[in-house]
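Changelog note: in this version the structure field was regenerated for every chain. One regenerated record is shown below for reference.
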Amino acid sequence: QVRLVESGGGLVQAGGSLGLSCAASGSVFSISFMAWYRQAPGKQREFLARITRGGSTNYADSVKGRFTISRDNAKNTMFLQMNSLKFEDTAIYYCNLVDLGGYEYWGQGTQVTVSS
């Protein structure tokens, strides 16, 4: 079973930066892609960024140019570097993994709060 654990959330002022990590453990030998999502209170979960098995990335328009997704395959870890943070970035941030069979896994989330 795959387990995903997010870390790095916290409180930051608008305009500041924060880095998130997602550590994967268990049977993680067949990753198709990993992604970051977020969910603010009362809103739907929102796609942010994705990185494929081959290293290709794509971003939601709301974060393109501000957020950067990356990974360390040797450590089974994914990162999200967030710069120029805005108040509307406040949300719980979730790690997502999809394996080559199409099975999907989620972390429990880490809170990011941006003060204005």
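Spot check on this record: The longest strand covers residues 31-39. The radius of gyration is 14 Å.
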